[in-house]
Amino acid sequence: MVKERIVSDFDGVWTDPQQEAVDYSAAFAEKFSQRIGIPLVELSGFMQSASEAINKSPGTFGWEYKGMIIAPATADPYVFNDTVAKETLKELGYHKDTDKLIDGLFQACYNLSKPVFREGAREYLEALHNLSNLTIVTNSDTKKVEKKLFELFGTEDHGFRVIGNAKKYVVNNRGNWNIERTTWLSGLPRPVFLRRSEYNQVLSRQGKIDKVLGDIYELDLALPEAKGIYTILIATPTTPPWEVNHYQGHPNGSAVYNLADLTEAAVGK
Ligand SMILES: [Mg+2]
């Protein structure tokens, strides 16, 4: 039997980013306070208000790339912290190089993030690897994912194919596209941008793909779905409802909540 070709994202699918980023988030707030010179006790109130505003209206905030929102603010703790910082700076009337400041906070704190895997990650990742032709395609640096796989399997000889720095956030309309520029999801008051040129190149190099697995619809799944590939969303506690609802009665995809169901949806018969 020919094994299906499956592409899977890594962080958020096999790991639990909320748990991984506990120390990161604490350090992020502390460094933020130091760098803009406002005591943490004072800044926390502003950050709390920004968090509440984002959570109240998650569809209107997000990860911006060249003025386009390309993933929801609640996608993962890193995007969330960045968005909170950005909204806080707006509220404070801080207009200096905010992107540079926020990126500097991410860089300064990222190493505090520790690998925490979803329940059954080793068992189900191994099963998927054995039952399919699997490639991991991630925005993360390849080495960072390799390190996590080493942690999970206790060996560098795990045999997984990892393609890092996939830049799924890059939207570029130049060139020939046979898919629409955008799509709309019910419940999301902004478009989803489909023409992710860097990710498209990575996917195209894999040949015919049967399924793509991811935890963030916009980043991982919107493009492959538009290309006609079967997509599976594994929801996290912060996955927005419009992403899960999108998969209700979906003719070419499904949404799951845990790795047992993900593996079943990917390779179960
Ligand atoms: Mg992910």
Q: Could you list some keywords that capture this structure?
A:
Rossmann fold; six-stranded parallel beta sheet; two-stranded antiparallel sheet; 269 residues; binds magnesium ion; 2 domains; alpha/beta
Topology:
Layout: E1 5-8, H1 17-20, H2 22-36, H3 40-56, E2 62-65, E3 68-72, H4 77-92, H5 98-109, H6 121-131, E4 133-137, H7 142-153, E5 161-163, E6 182-183, E7 192-193, H8 197-204, E8 211-214, H9 217-226, E9 230-234, H10 241-246, E10 253-256, H11 259-267
Parallel strand pairs: 1-4, 1-8, 4-5, 8-9, 9-10
Antiparallel strand pairs: 2-3, 6-7
Bound molecules: magnesium ion.
Classification by helices and strands: alpha/beta
Helix content: 40-55%
Total count of strands: 10
Backbone CA Rg = 19 Å
Query: Spans of 5+ residues with little confidence (pLDDT < 50)?
Result: none
Structural domain count:
2
The main pleated sheet reads as: 6 strands, parallel
Order of helices and strands: EHHHEEHHHEHEEEHEHEHEH
Distance between the termini: 13 Å
CATH topology of the largest domain: Rossmann fold
- Our estimate of the beta-strand percent is 5-15%
Let me know the CATH homologous superfamily of the largest domain: HAD superfamily/HAD-like
The total count of helices amounts to 11
Strand order of the largest sheet: 5-4-1-8-9-10
CATH architecture identity of the largest domain: 3-Layer(aba) Sandwich
What is the average per-residue confidence, as pLDDT, rounded to a whole number? 95
Ligands and ions found: magnesium ion
